[in-house]
Amino acid sequence: MKDREEQKASLSQYFDAVDRRIMKLAGGDLHLDLQICGRRLRVHYASLEDMERSRFSFTGMIDDTKGEPEAHLSYWKDDTKNYLPSSASTGNDIYRVRDESGELNILPGYHMKGIDRHGNRYYVCRSENERAPLFGNSHDLLPLFDVWARENGMYIYHGAVVGTGGKGVIIAGRNHAGKSTLAVGCMLQGMDLVTDDQFAAVREDGVLYAMPIYRILGLNPDSFERLDPHLPVMDTLVPWEEKIFLDISGIKLPGRLAVQAIIVPVLSHEEAPVICPADKGSAIVRIVRSSVAEYRGNDTPETVAGMVGMLKHLPVYEIRLSTDVRANAEKLKRFVQDRLL
């Protein structure tokens, strides 16, 4: 019992030292408070530039009210060798500690991931030698959110979620398959939109709920022109895949939807969109593979099995998209209303 308490204290003291280093790098306490999945989270940054680069991703999700966060999340760049405990080897092996009080995983020269369960603190440090700047796009925080989500009974998936009447569907497919265009088109048809790209899923009383991680919507220029959404365009500060991001902070959006099915968009030359049953196994495998690829290495067998298990009860349908983006959205809206409500 004494050894466990000493280990718990040791990890907490270690993360206290990590917090002090982040504040030293930042020149103070730099953070944003966010409302994500119904939780108040505080994200800490190691520089003002990092904080400002990430701010646009959380349009409509920044919580300016006073209050204590449920968890603290830190994501920054540094030489990961600085975080090796004095007792650790200085070689290239992974340093790993794990018990009921927390976790610490360090791959020198690549990344450090940490969890302090006692203090509800979560950490991901990337190597300072990586060429890409932090917060060059909205996906940078996904590895950190993924660590936090799995600790709290959730998984994060790559996909859009739309619906009506409190119930919805996951739109999941390969990049550039029409996922975002269909999701934004559905929103313009009056459907509820949770997200067009990333969502957290949790099961409660046998029901799967999807919740947003980000509220920004990104369209390629061709889709933006065809949909003509008449929404303000956001300044992202840095270019990202030449996408046009829409400011939807003025639109009331649901905090979550009860997911009833998976919809797989397929590009086609049909004169009118068609929805038909599709193979469940291959669709779910594609969603999970796409998701774990986004989160940079969180593809342990346990994680993959959990992500598959959360989706396996859902029916899967294919929507063969026509060239008429509005007709595609109308077809999916009628399908949800007629088949799922």
Question: Can you give a write-up of this model?
Answer:
The chain has 341 residues and is α+β, with helices and mostly antiparallel strands. It has two domains: 2-152, no CATH class; 156-340, P-loop containing nucleotide triphosphate hydrolases (Rossmann fold, 3-Layer(aba) Sandwich). It is 30% helix and 32% strand. The protein has eight helices and 18 strands. It has helices at 2-26, 48-55, 142-151, 179-188, 221-227, 280-294, 301-311, 325-340, and strands spanning 30-36, 39-45, 71-78, 95-99, 102-107, 111-116, 121-127, 155-158, 160-164, 167-171, 192-195, 198-204, 207-212, 217-219, 244-246, 257-270, 274-277, 316-322. A hairpin with a 4-residue loop joins strand 6 (111-116) and strand 7. It starts with a helix and ends with a helix.
Which helices and strands appear, and what pairs or packs with what?
Elements: H1 2-26, E1 30-36, E2 39-45, H2 48-55, E3 71-78, E4 95-99, E5 102-107, E6 111-116, E7 121-127, H3 142-151, E8 155-158, E9 160-164, E10 167-171, H4 179-188, E11 192-195, E12 198-204, E13 207-212, E14 217-219, H5 221-227, E15 244-246, E16 257-270, E17 274-277, H6 280-294, H7 301-311, E18 316-322, H8 325-340
Parallel strand pairs: 2-3, 3-7, 10-16, 16-18
Antiparallel strand pairs: 1-2, 4-5, 5-6, 6-7, 8-12, 9-10, 9-11, 12-13, 13-16, 14-15, 17-18
Class from helix and strand fractions: alpha+beta
Annotation field: number of helices: 8
CATH-assigned homologous superfamily of the largest domain: P-loop containing nucleotide triphosphate hydrolases
Mean pLDDT reading: 88
State the total count of DSSP E strands: 18
What CATH first level of the largest domain would be assigned? Alpha Beta
Distance between the termini: 53 Å
Radius of gyration: 21 Å
Order of helices and strands: HEEHEEEEEHEEEHEEEEHEEEHHEH
Shape label: globular
What is the subunit arrangement here? Answer: single chain
Could you name the CATH topology of the largest domain? Rossmann fold
Strand content: 25-35%
Level of helix content? 25-40%
The major β-sheet equals: 9 strands, mixed
